[in-house]
Amino acid sequence: MTFNPALFRQQFPFFIENPNIVYLDNAATTLKPQVLLDSTNQFYRSAGSVHRSQYDEQNTYIYEKARTEVKQLINAENENCIIWTSGTTHSINTVAYGLLPHLSSQDEIIISEAEHHANFVTWQQIAKKSGAKLRVLSLSDNWLINEQQLIHSLNNNTKLVALNFISNVTGATQAIKKLISLIRQYSNAMVLIDAAQAINHIKIDIKELDTDFLVFSAHKMYGPTGIGVLSGKKVSLEKLTPLLFGGKMVDQVSLENTSFSSLPYRLEAGTPNIAGVIGFYSVLKWLNKWDRIAAEKWTSQLTEQAKVRLSQYKHCKIFSSSNPSTLFSFVFKGIASSDLSTLLAEQNIALRVGEHCAQPYLANLNTSTTLRLSFAPYNNQEDVDKFFQALDKSLELLDIE
């Protein structure tokens, strides 16, 4: 389907029920289309679980078809390499604690200053538990990982490198394919890519990237909250010790011992978020109807326009990558970001303010908080104009030129 911003916007009940709100916090979570609400409601009006009895075969069929949709989305090895989790954080922890038995004080883990807390704190704590050394890569002036520093940090003891694809603070897009190539060249380390911000904006081919693990959340791409994906190479996923134990993930249980199921079930203990998976399946099928390249171009153009207009405010400092992006952060000198956010919220402007779950990154930027604008294909010119009208009124109230 040819991309039409107005038609795309009509798919989201939020705009009908909240016509006066300008939603510019899409990096946090996207709005939900009607197709998600319908499919979720339909599941809750049915009976049963999945993989339990003959009468729930229809739910089970759709539940497993969702793996096929995700496999096609990221070109995964096969459906068994699609693991359902509750979100990106759960996915990262599944890998981290799954590798914990294989880590020792002789090993090293590499992350960067640009990581979300989910991909920073997790590895920091795993390093403390295992005794492994944690190496944190600094960033260059354009907030990209310094390739030479990465090379110098890699050695025979490097066990894992965990990096984000796109920053949730500046929108900087790392040259992930090249970075992974360097990691392969200079070490035998496993690689985890946090694609939470990238999955809705970049066509990801997991085989082409050659990453061991890829993680993301459904709610960043119009899907439900409480659903995430852990994917990667089958050989790498099979190395993970299950994070959770319980029903469905076992093969045989005796009084003395337990054997576990094969992938993906061995990493999916307990009753899953069935409604979430089925809802995500409906969203992915719906997304396939749209020209996502055109949608991304539209979104990037709106973002760039907002960034250019904001750069004309002399007291404003913008934190943004040079590459096309759909988000950026900013601060106003002499104004608390929380105060400005409050005034904007009173004028129905929804954006993000705070530390963005990335305190080390903000320390690198020499600030404690920022405001963040993040756009989606359903945003339009009127949204941009209303933001600047509200901003001008807020600055006037704060007596800032």
From TrEMBL:
GO molecular function: cysteine desulfurase activity; pyridoxal phosphate binding
Presence of keyword Ribosomal protein: no
Protein's UniProt keywords contain Transferase: yes
Residue intervals of the Aminotransferase class V domain: 22-387
Matches recorded under SUPFAM superfamilies: PLP-dependent transferases (SSF53383)
Keywords linked to the UniProt accession: Pyridoxal phosphate, Transferase
Catalysis: reaction(s): (sulfur carrier)-H + L-cysteine = (sulfur carrier)-SH + L-alanine
Alphabetical list of PROSITE patterns matching this protein: AA_TRANSFER_CLASS_5
InterPro entries documented for this protein: Aminotrans_V_dom (IPR000192), Aminotrans_V_PyrdxlP_BS (IPR020578), Cys_dSase_SufS (IPR010970), Cysteine_dSase (IPR016454), PyrdxlP-dep_Trfase (IPR015424), PyrdxlP-dep_Trfase_major (IPR015421), PyrdxlP-dep_Trfase_small (IPR015422)
Enzyme Commission number(s) of this protein: 2.8.1.7
One GO biological process term: cysteine metabolic process
Cofactor(s), by name: pyridoxal 5'-phosphate
Domain of life: Bacteria
Family classification: Belongs to the class-V pyridoxal-phosphate-dependent aminotransferase family. Csd subfamily.
Its job: Catalyzes the removal of elemental sulfur and selenium atoms from L-cysteine, L-cystine, L-selenocysteine, and L-selenocystine to produce L-alanine.
UniProt protein name: Probable cysteine desulfurase
Originating species: Bisgaardia hudsonensis
